[in-house]
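P.,

For your records, the input lines for the assembly:
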Amino acid sequence: MNDQGRRKDARRNEQTLLEAASAVFVTSGVEAPVRDIAARAGVGMGTLYRHFPTRADLVIAVYRHQVDACAEAGPALLAAGPTPYAALTRWVESFVDFLVTKHGLAGVMQADSAGFEALHAYFLDRLLPVCARLLDAAAASGEIRAEIDAYQLMRGIGNLCVGAENDPRYDARRLVALLLAGLERE
Amino acid sequence: MNDQGRRKDARRNEQTLLEAASAVFVTSGVEAPVRDIAARAGVGMGTLYRHFPTRADLVIAVYRHQVDACAEAGPALLAAGPTPYAALTRWVESFVDFLVTKHGLAGVMQADSAGFEALHAYFLDRLLPVCARLLDAAAASGEIRAEIDAYQLMRGIGNLCVGAENDPRYDARRLVALLLAGLERE
DNA sequence: AAACAATACGGAGCACTGTTCCGCTTTGCA
DNA sequence: TGCAAAGCGGAACAGTGCTCCGTATTGTTT
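Structure tokens returned:
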């Protein structure tokens, strides 16, 4: 727990930055200017960038716990749910909830969002295997057509969540549900 | 054909700008720097902005014909297709083709894409009524569940097309097809 | 043909990004 | 207590979209 012998001001600043970033993300969204976060943490730009070499790294650090929790929920749901498709549905719903409640996260998670490749890669690394396992199980049980791979499903879900938070006429959950319904074997 | 008595250099520059923008959009995408377009047209920034007060206006001007064609295809398909749902499917496919072939257009068509509200509004004005008509007809014929309104469907389709052009692993057409399949009444 | 508004042009400049760089400060070990 | 090493702050850079205004072009009026 020595935190690798870094100086204690460094450790304190990293923590302060994470808290500031988390707060700013809630109020101004994930795309908030880096300066705002540094200012809120009472820290210079250099400090921010030494701890988090790019905006994406900061975003990853802030949401790492929730992404991990989402990844761990997959196998649990599969074990608990009545059927694999039910587990898939619930897992997807929780993922969508996560994306939709974080301002702009879905938009920035896209592969082509310049400078956020690391974020995209992290989400994929962590969640793709989980999604694949659920999808395979649901296909094996005959509940869905195996028409799509986990990558495309994840990307489709992410895309459907883009911009969902500032548009009362748009309900990403419903559209994702429709997409899953399209997978069902009739 | 007098083009409202504007000076002839003005008319010529507007045309040159449209051609330059069109060419740049193809090679560098819709989000290409405005300076690039002005440079390609051999024109100053002031000229560009006088003719197209915002980037969105330029994008609209470049794609206006194709959007209009898409809008007009709706009623035609409804009249021609075997069923309203088939017409809807075909119309959506043509819309997806349009979005996917224009670099970054889908991403920029989103409501929250800062500075592109005008573009979003234009697409909606032009295409929403067409989509609504197709959707209503398909619902009336009993082929689909009326679970979703035209706005949400359009937005969902637009979202699914985001970033589709630079990712060989992602096939927006297939996901949109799945979404439509989710609408079918079983 | 010459003078002269009116119209339109060009590009420097502004405000705002993310990111880098480096002189100065703080820390913790000897 | 001294002093390198580690860390810090924020000015400065490069790249955006967009504005502003002095200058050039146009076409109309004498």
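Two observations worth noting. Chain B has a mean pLDDT of 94. Residues 55-80 of chain B form the longest helix (26 residues).

Regards
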